[in-house]
Amino acid sequence: MSVSAGAVSHERLCAWAYLSAVVEPPAPASYGFVAVHGAEIAADRIRSGNVPGAVVNETAARREHVCGAELLERAHRSGIRLVTPEHGEWPGSRSAFLEGATEVGLSGLAAPMALWCRGNVSPEAVSRSAVAVVGARAATGYGESCAAELGYELARSGTTVVSGAAYGIDGAAHRGALAAGGATAAILACGPELDYPAGHARLIARIAENGLVCSEYPPGTPPRKHRFLVRNRLIAAVTDGTVVVEAGLRSGAGNTATTTDTLGLPVMAVPGPVTSANSSGCHELIRSGKAVLVTGAPDVLELVSDIGTARAPEREPTPRPTDELDEVSKRVHDSLSPTRRRTVEQLVHETGITRKSVVTCLSALEISGFVRCDDRGWTRCDQ
Amino acid sequence: MSVSAGAVSHERLCAWAYLSAVVEPPAPASYGFVAVHGAEIAADRIRSGNVPGAVVNETAARREHVCGAELLERAHRSGIRLVTPEHGEWPGSRSAFLEGATEVGLSGLAAPMALWCRGNVSPEAVSRSAVAVVGARAATGYGESCAAELGYELARSGTTVVSGAAYGIDGAAHRGALAAGGATAAILACGPELDYPAGHARLIARIAENGLVCSEYPPGTPPRKHRFLVRNRLIAAVTDGTVVVEAGLRSGAGNTATTTDTLGLPVMAVPGPVTSANSSGCHELIRSGKAVLVTGAPDVLELVSDIGTARAPEREPTPRPTDELDEVSKRVHDSLSPTRRRTVEQLVHETGITRKSVVTCLSALEISGFVRCDDRGWTRCDQ
């Protein structure tokens, strides 16, 4: 499908709107049909039923009932624009992930026909540097605080935080990114004007004001269980990797993680208390090797960056002054007390080190200020 | 070094006691010297200084000051027996791990000369099926509860819980095993009669009554920092694997984990909140691939068992009745409400599935009791 930056005619946009609504995604056969024939011819032929059997199966149910112009009008009233593969805004390189997956026979991962968008940021800009942060709706306080912290730190580093606007982890990740004044994008499983879930209407509005709210479902499409799973493939494909913050053993986040892995992108998971059922999905992903354990944004950025561009800071413990001592000197130092004096003979017996070595060690330790002696014996200087 | 089950003469036991006290472990040269010449000849030659240079370095400091008979007498008064490589009680196959490590040049991992033991269980019996549970002294309530639970469940499964009797994770693991009425063993970094730390005197006595308290250090040896690190190699070598429950970035538990890994045995770590510094060592072990994430005893038993003898129960989420439905039937089921009736035409448009398929699905779903219909339309039966 050719990508050009120019404007798309109203007729052609109507054809794209029709195509986006006539199918229930994923629709691999129709997607391929449009790629071959172009939007307008494909729309005409689908409307008249003059299409191959696989396309009939994906389009027969709605072909006579959808009107592209009406959908565009409705979208326009809600401040929603339609972004198609012909727009410069299209996340072409990321949508290619899904095209590749479809070509190897993963038809459930077909690319979206088009994207209905709210907000000034383009899907293409979002996809340039983005991380998905996903997880349980019924999250714990611990999970929400991890998600908010991750959202904040990722956004602060210039990474777009992509999630699904759900309660729990999704909402906390979006809020963290907004708090950092950074970019965040919500991909919905219903029409982008629907503010689902209702309790997140204000949050979704803020995301649209500062980033992007988008959906492959046209205005008016209600959320349905299977649409969340279908939507999850877009969250995985548009980002450079997926972080699961909290998830039970059976979860939508686990589904996003599987898709991320199928697409060859890094899957990450945040650990938590082993006593928390909300972390059991994360632990299973890590234990089975499907996800890499991450404890914060530096770990995530290291994994999603090209090699060498971002390295998590080394987790070096604080050095101690005695670190530089050799094993024998450490043993002598160790056998001294800060208060009770010890003779060389006592140290020889205590350490099991020869008299000559003990004397040599003590001299070197005294010069470095680790030990001191007076006429009654040796003591340790605590530093 | 030959292993026989018979009694060892008092003279020879005195030689072993002398050898165990004359060196500061690890003492690879002396260990090798004893293996070649036998305990009595080796002891005589060490006492007179008639030994190779490497053995001189390990023995010159104490060779004139140690008396094996006195040590045995002192041990006897404290209810401590000396177990040597000549006893049937010797954990021969496990001590071989350390001999192997020494042979490949890891002289810091030399096998112990002998073991001073309190309690009726033999080191050999301990080593038959044992897991090390180790971690921070300044543990959190979360860590202690994980360690106690692990200790309890491992002991209940017939596995000996081995640790170092320290405050925090060690103590909790021993207590868990004792609570299960199972076997537990403490390996100390000081003379085995010393009840270190003092606050664990009662716990150590209970371990000795129900299991084993042992040390390579003869009675009277005080604990020293380096002795804890040296002791840790025995905890690693005598067990089938090491679980780190809580550890900071710099910890003795991390040292035990490294030794376990060097010996080719499984290293496991329990995750925790990413906000807890006490879990950061565990997370780093998992993240770097040095340890496998474990959430409880079933995970541990699966990893330390011979393949196939113990499998962690599958973490299968609870199945739902709709799991058996195909994707198309799920989509139809999903679009129905338990209360509001829908017509076939509404379902066709809502799902994007052809009329023929919708009707076929509805019939099958009705027979299975998933949906019902009356003259006004179709509803979902919630199960």
From TrEMBL, chains A, B:
<dbReference type="InterPro" id="IPR003488">
    <property type="entry name" value="DprA"/>
</dbReference>
<dbReference type="GO" id="GO:0009294">
    <property type="term" value="P:DNA-mediated transformation"/>
</dbReference>
<dbReference type="Pfam" id="PF02481">
    <property type="entry name" value="DNA_processg_A"/>
</dbReference>
<dbReference type="InterPro" id="IPR036388">
    <property type="entry name" value="WH-like_DNA-bd_sf"/>
</dbReference>
<protein>
    <submittedName>
        <fullName>DNA processing protein</fullName>
    </submittedName>
</protein>
<feature type="compositionally biased region" description="Basic and acidic residues">
    <location>
        <begin position="312"/>
        <end position="334"/>
    </location>
</feature>
<feature type="domain" description="DprA winged helix">
    <location>
        <begin position="316"/>
        <end position="372"/>
    </location>
</feature>
<dbReference type="InterPro" id="IPR057666">
    <property type="entry name" value="DrpA_SLOG"/>
</dbReference>
<dbReference type="InterPro" id="IPR041614">
    <property type="entry name" value="DprA_WH"/>
</dbReference>
<feature type="region of interest" description="Disordered">
    <location>
        <begin position="308"/>
        <end position="341"/>
    </location>
</feature>
<dbReference type="Pfam" id="PF17782">
    <property type="entry name" value="WHD_DprA"/>
</dbReference>
<feature type="domain" description="Smf/DprA SLOG">
    <location>
        <begin position="110"/>
        <end position="304"/>
    </location>
</feature>
<comment type="similarity">
    <text>Belongs to the DprA/Smf family.</text>
</comment>
